[in-house]
Specification:
The chain is α/β, with parallel strands linked by helices. The chain has helices at 13-16, 76-91, 129-133, 135-145, 159-162, 206-215, 230-237, 250-262, 277-286, 308-324, 343-357, and strands at 4-7, 21-23, 27-31, 39-43, 49-55, 61-67, 99-104, 113-118, 121-126, 150-155, 168-173, 180-184, 187-191, 220-224, 242-247, 270-274, 291-296, 326-336, 359-368, 386-394. A hairpin with an 8-residue loop joins β7 (99-104) and β8 (113-118). α10 (308-324) crosses α11. The termini are far apart. The relative contact order is 0.09.
């Protein structure tokens, strides 16, 4: 018989609204023995069954809900069904690529699980104690849904430490190449599933890359935090006259150049600049250099609520410097991938940056994560990528 988590009185409301997290302060007691990652039944203070969840005694999120259906067991069939249903949902989206996010954690009803498909390679990332406990069942489900695919694990993220887990990577099944070539909107792009950022590629920016492509015609583009230059490829495919890519990583710039050349762009159409973006933007401003379009896609600045104010200052500064190097009437595509950064706060930060830069900014379009990174209505935390297309003018 499964152990039970009994909630404090009045703390069942979020579960009745089908939010999948149970915080430590909501737990009154535990009936029975529950080890790390075990599946437990969640009960109200009055003994009503509420959910079946994965137990994580070392995390502030004490349990993550697998199912709100009392008749559903968390077994092999459970994970196969979850993957098959997600596959069916994603198939309806008409994704213009052979790479997509199959499972986006809680938004696809598998908390702590990320599964990305890159052509013939499936990359899995297990972020929670419950996901780690169900590891073999998850692998078995992937094999069932993708019988011909190779499987690679990228559970090398700091959040695992909050769950008392060590980081882990490696081949799970099959022959995993060092590089996988995927197709996106007619472009051929390289994915390094073993050493690349996250699971190897920023699938969540697919839709925004297409926006950049549409806007880039006849423009001189500055691509900040360029990583492997996927925004640059999109911009040049859209008719940009030239793209300057800035990144602090020489290896990323080299891989980016490979992507650009693979898509038959000439090396005269782009420049690779190894530099700290903050310093580079200051130098451009000091030298009076400007661009028709600036793309600003920095790494996550916010790790916790305690760092939000500091991160807000960082976002304000970098957007201010970016506005300085946008030509009159030009465009700024600016993003935050910090899930703790609310959209309204990010918009205010951009407005404040415009004031400090002495610019007028108009919000032309709101951007967000690609359609395969959908957000479950009862789990708003699934929205983490936010962006705006801004038109920048002198006062």
């Amino acid at each position: 018989m499964a152990a039970k988590i009994i909630l404090n009185e009045g703390r069942e409301k979020s579960l009745t609204m089908r939010h999948p997290w149970i915080f430590s302060k909501a737990v009154k007691s535990i009936s029975g023995r529950a080890n790390v990652g075990d599946t437990v039944d969640v009960m109200s203070s009055r003994g009503k069954w509420l959910a079946r969840a994965a137990y994580s005694p070392e995390s502030q999120i004490r349990a993550r809900v697998w199912t709100f259906n009392q008749g559903e067991s968390v077994d092999h069939v459970f994970f196969i069904n979850r993957l098959q249903k997600a596959q069916a949902r994603k198939a309806l989206l008409g994704i213009p690529s052979n790479a997509y996010r199959l499972i986006a954690g809680e938004s696809d009803e598998l908390p702590g699980v990320t599964i990305d498909v890159f052509d013939h390679v499936v990359v899995m990332q297990l972020l929670s104690a419950g996901a780690e406990k169900q590891r073999e069942k998850i692998i078995s489900a992937i094999e069932r849904v993708f019988p011909e695919a190779a499987i690679y694990e990228r559970s090398d993220v700091n959040v695992r430490e909050k769950e008392g887990l060590e980081q882990k990577t490696g081949v799970v099944k099959g022959d995993v190449p060092n590089e996988v070539i995927i197709q996106e909107h007619g472009l051929s792009l390289t994915v390094d599933v073993k050493k690349g950022h996250k699971t190897g590629f920023y699938l969540d920016q697919r839709d925004s890359r297409e926006v950049a492509k549409r806007l880039a015609s006849n423009k001189d583009v500055l691509n900040c935090f360029s990583y492997t230059c996927t925004f640059a490829c999109a911009a040049l495919a859209g008719g940009a006259t030239h793209v300057t890519n800035i990144d602090v990583s020489e290896d990323a710039l080299a891989r980016g150049k490979e992507n650009l050349l693979r898509n038959y762009f000439k090396d005269t159409q782009f420049t690779q600049q190894k530099a700290d973006v903050f310093n580079a933007l200051r130098d451009y401003h000091a030298n009076g250099e400007q661009f028709d379009m600036v793309i600003l896609d920095p790494p996550k600045f916010v790790d916790s609520k305690s760092t939000l104010n500091r991160a807000a200052r960082g976002y304000k500064d970098i957007n201010m410097y970016a506005m300085h190097v946008v030509r009159e009437g030009g465009l700024l595509l600016t993003f935050t991938c910090s899930g703790l950064m609310p959209t309204d706060l990010f918009q205010k930060i951009i407005a404040d940056a415009a004031l400090d830069a002495g610019k007028d900014v108009r919000f032309i379009q709101r951007l967000g994560q690609a359609t395969d990174h959908s957000v479950l209505a009862t789990y708003p935390q699934g929205e983490y990528l936010r962006g705006f297309v801004c038109q920048v003018s002198n006062r």
